[in-house]
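User: I'm writing a short report section on ligand binding and want a predicted complex to refer to. Could you take this sequence and cytidine-5'-monophosphate and write out the structure as tokens? A short remark afterwards would be nice.
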Amino acid sequence: MEQLLVALDVDTVAEARALADRLRGVVGGFKIGSRLFTSEGPALVEELASRGDRVFLDLKFHDIPNTVAGAITAATRLGVWMVNVHASGGRAMMRAARDAAHEEAARRSRPAPLVIAVTMLTSLDQEALTDIGLSASVAGQVERLAALTEAAGLAGVVASPQEIAIIRRRCGADFTIVTPGIRGAGDSKGDQSRTLSAADALAAGASYLVVGRPIIAASDPRAAAERIVAECRG
Ligand code: C5P
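Assistant: Sure. The structure tokens for the complex follow:
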């Protein structure tokens, strides 16, 4: 299923490769985040991308525009399909990210990666916003940053299940919304507090779902992924 992306949140290339090999054909792509990237580096990103897997490089860049542009250029060179930045890095940083992706992709005659933005980390609540000096509500801040992301020309945002509807209404049908926090009835929630089932998240307007532990920690990851696909189609 195109829309189902699996978070390869493991420590070694060997574990990640084994998971990708089991899941290929059932899922639509693999997310590589800071845990695996920091322990193992970019080799697996390049390996998966060069064999045709869609790789979402989830490193949430947040720096001055020139530095973020350099990181996005490097990610584009690795062949990633999707990559992200923090929307709070601002309009100029997001534009620099988008331009870098398009320029490097054009140099290599390949499609540019989708550059998306994290609006608010789902781990931040109202108190955490106040701590960093923001008086807006969480929902208000998410909507504001999603609109800024769209205005900066990015493809979309990462959003919690609760935020999908607001963003879809504000940013329209073509805006990409990538949603983690997916849990089925029998799944442990772990540290995710605001969750939706895969089918409900798609119905609410998500473009892609990111699922980690319900698949990668299952005794049979492929069967777990197939169950999610069946639930979405059912
Ligand atoms: O294991 P689980 O299904 O909770 O994994 C969700 C993945 O999505 C993790 O890689 C996590 O870092 C990521 N993520 C998230 N919430 C966000 C952004 C990313 O859970 N707001």
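A remark for your report: Residues 7, 9, 33, 121-122, 158, 160, 180-181, 190, 192, 210-214 surround cytidine-5'-monophosphate (CB under 6 Å). The longest strand covers residues 55-61.
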